[in-house]
UniProtKB/TrEMBL annotation:
SUPFAM superfamilies: Rhomboid-like (SSF144091)
GO cellular component terms, A-Z: membrane
InterPro entries, sorted: Peptidase_S54_rhomboid_dom, Rhom-like_SP_proteobac, Rhomboid-like_sf
Compartments, record wording: Membrane
Pfam families for the chain: Rhomboid (PF01694)
Protein name per its UniProtKB record: Peptidase S54 rhomboid domain-containing protein
Domain Peptidase S54 rhomboid: 25-164
Organism (species): Ralstonia holmesii
Keywords, ordered alphabetically: Membrane, Transmembrane, Transmembrane helix
Membrane protein topology class: Multi-pass membrane protein
Transmembrane segments: 38-57, 62-82, 88-105, 112-129, 141-162
Length: 168
């Protein structure tokens, strides 16, 4: 993500989620849009989250495979469920999904995992109600997209279910 951010506007414009471009066949944007950002603050926040989540993700799961699966799932949900969404960039939906994958299995033994998951769900719902977006917009470069966060939570839970079934 840091390399893509350093690549500047041209790289970001080529990879960002753009509905018209996706509809014209540039389907990679469903995935790549999650790995580019509106500005450096946005990028660094997401890279920090990825580092923390990669450390606590269960050892049996490949971080990059999870990221790609979550990116594809979230991108598809955004494309199908939000026809009015023209542009999107950022990793936070994937971060929310990784948090579910990393924390949900820990809930029975580590109550703090339940508290953190509850806080993430509450924050995503708060943003969905549009009360949590205004303050973040100036420094992120765009308002947070609550739908991406909610899709990430759901996709993370689905990925965890798939992984649990595969290991049985």
């Amino acid at each position: 993500m840091l390399a893509l951010q350093a690549g500047g506007v041209t790289i970001a414009d080529t990879l960002r989620y753009e509905r018209a471009a996706i509809a014209s066949g540039e389907v990679w944007r469903l995935i790549s849009g999650h790995f580019v950002h509106f500005n450096w603050a946005h990028c660094l926040l997401n890279v920090g989250g990825l580092i923390v989540l990669a450390v606590i993700l269960p050892a049996s799961l490949c971080v990059w495979r999870c990221c790609l699966w979550l990116a594809a799932s979230i991108g598809l949900v955004l494309f199908l469920a939000l026809p009015g969404l023209q542009h999107y960039a950022g990793f936070s939906g994937i971060a929310y999904g990784l948090a579910v994958v990393a924390l949900l299995p820990r809930v029975p033994d580590e109550p703090i995992a339940a508290v953190v998951l509850f806080a993430l769900v509450a924050r995503a719902l708060w943003q969905w109600l549009d009360t949590g977006n205004a303050d973040a917009m100036p420094w992120l470069g765009a308002p947070p997209l609550a739908a991406a966060h909610l899709a990430g939570l759901a996709a993370g839970a689905l990925l965890l279910c798939i992984e649990c079934r595969a290991s049985v």
